[in-house]
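User: Okay, second chain of the day. Same drill as before: sequence in, structure tokens out.
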Amino acid sequence: MKFLNKEVAFALEADNLSADFRPLIELPLVIMVGLTGVGKSTVLELLPEQGLKFTLLPNRRDITDQIIIASLQAEAGQPVGPVTDRLERFEYTARYRDKFPGGMAHALSRLVINSAAAQSLLIFDGLRGLNEVQHAVAYFPLARFVVLDAPDTVRLTRLLNRGDVFDVTSSKIQADLPASQDLIAALQDVPHVDVIFNEENLRQIAAGARLAQIPADEVVQKIAIIVKERRNYDSSTARVHLTHTLPPQQVLVVDTASHPARVVAEKIAHWLE
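Assistant: Same drill. Structure tokens below.
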């Protein structure tokens, strides 16, 4: 086994588990579902205030680093090491999904839990698209799903304001941006941006960025992340699949653009109880 922390390990098929460790697929857990910027991390930070005692499993970033990227690098004979570029990380997770249907859900299914150290309530942050939730439903029959949603423009605003060092890309999309280029034109040059944002969206984004004095290259960088993620993961079909496949007691959907984070945390805590 490869230990991710004292409570969680990544098991290989040949591993003989000790009595304290149980496969995650046999346990009830809560899976957060949502794209970048819907508020998953913020809500999870607020849940303990609601009196919930839970073990937060290694999150999507950790599993991507320690299982998905590491395994693909080793398989390719490359040095195993961190990948910080968000767009490059999307490429790795897409390759893993091609190799193992279910992608992140498959990686999650390989975890084993030290039941002696973990709380009975286990929470994972988080899954994204249709492919992942379809396989999660099959892998984890005892799971409950909390789907957090927000419009793409709201998610972009949150990315621009949250200052997370994880939201970076070294992509030439913004590196080659001339200083004199109009921001709207620069946004229009982002590959496939028109699939996600219309012309009015882009005008509003550019106006908001100028008002907030956000550098043009940062706006282009963050919108490229939003576009790439949405092309990799269809959040709306994931939500529809869960709500049409599972009974109401197994799925909670909350629009985080319509409720403050603390209210969202209250709704989730009440539902989990």
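The longest strand covers residues 122-127.

User: Thanks, on to the next one.
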